[in-house]
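Re: the multi-chain job from yesterday

Posting the exact lines I submitted so nobody has to dig through the queue logs.
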Amino acid sequence: MPKRLLAFSDQTAIAGVGYTPFAKNSGVSTLTLACRAVLAALDDAGLSVDEVDGLATHRVGDSAAPTLVGPALGLMDLSWHLDQFGGGSVSHAVVGQAALAVATGMAETVVCYRAINARSEFRMGGTGRGVPVSPEVQYQAPYGYVAPPQQYAMYARAHMLKYGTKAEHFGLLAVTQRANAAKNPRALMRTPITLDDYLAGRWIAEPFRLLDCCLETDGACAVVVTTAERARALRRPPVLISAAAWGGGTTHLSGAGADPTVTAAAALAPRLYAQAGIGPGDVDVAELYDCFTYSVIVQLEDYGFCAKGEGGPYVASGATAAGGPLPVNTHGGFLSEGYVHGMNHIAEAVSQLRGDAGERQVPGAEVALSTAQPGYILPATSALILRRA
Amino acid sequence: MAGYRPERDRDSREWWERIGRGEFAVQVCDACGTARFPARAFCARCRTEGAHWREVAPEGVVESWIVNHQPFVPGLRAPYVVVMVRLAEVPGCFVYGNWRGLRPPEHGERVTASYTRVDADLTLVDWRPGP
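And the result, structure tokens for all chains:
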């Protein structure tokens, strides 16, 4: 049975968040973006750069490592750093690992960041770079099967075939998140859309249309992890890290017995909830990894908010909209705010729990779930439960 | 087709060589008999090394498919269909290929490998309807 981890749960906190503006072309290096976001997060927390003793990031060879960012900010002797290979699967694992480092005393103040020029320099699986190096690519790329929208579209269709999930379900999710983005000054796409707009979108890889896909974005986002005790003495209301969990996933080819409509989140979720001592019914707001519309629908099922196969109708019911029982991606998500590879979902959860999310604030939000890519493509996933102190 | 040529590695070379001869074979664990794909050194079930190759029926059923409306890899012409096939004789394993049917695939339909010889060094596995 999964259990509470008393040495970990609520021992650390997120004390600050920082962003650069999101853009199609930042005009600067990822090193510059990383430094700006780190400084912004420290300023939000009310900490000086010299108080930082740890840095962590995730990347796929496309961005500045902590060993570059540290010296660039005059931090020549970090106690702890992490350069995690991986994409959206590991975004939340980075913050989880920073929390482990802080909980054990290996470091006291860790800034986790993701800096990315995902539109102007280095498009994921798209033009502008070679095919990613993984032994399984050789069985897919010769057939023109290589980019994340294709891979997610394949799984989305499997879900449609098995459970009757409809294009309209994906569309209503995109519409809902755009309505949230309309209330978010940071968001790249703030003009409301309708279901007809969604359905009129051009095909990318059927069953995905344009608005099923996230925004390739230039930008950076950072969060400051420190001890809960220290966070209480800082400028902002602390947000406790109640649970952090890591999970597996399926590869494209070799997931023995794999059901492509179930993600690794289904196995991770019980561990995650047990750590925090809560269940899905206790979650007030969820910031779920939305590289594509389908990603949210399958996670709503696998994190236990609705029955398997019911993710589409759950979204269509309005449950995930502002004012519903489970507001999801209140910032607009990758689909409408911008794509900073998971870090902006964590930062939005922090804003919601601090109560400073402005027009898009979920009233009285006390517990947030935030998740990484649920384990398709790269066989890994991760998630956090955050709680108002 | 084949805007991208597969980078064979030390685990996969033999699989590609056999495909080049029109032979659809997978590794079978010497110790426990579990079939696996793609090729690699260890059996994930009994965690031992040692395997032999066994020719299996180049057949499966359609699990899913996508219709690509842009050439995601240079050299391909859109639209093209990629199909995800659940192999009949290798439980839990999927393969991908281009669709060689004159109509769209159907969920759960039986399909058979169709070899596409690109040149002397490369043959790809596509899929067509029917046993």
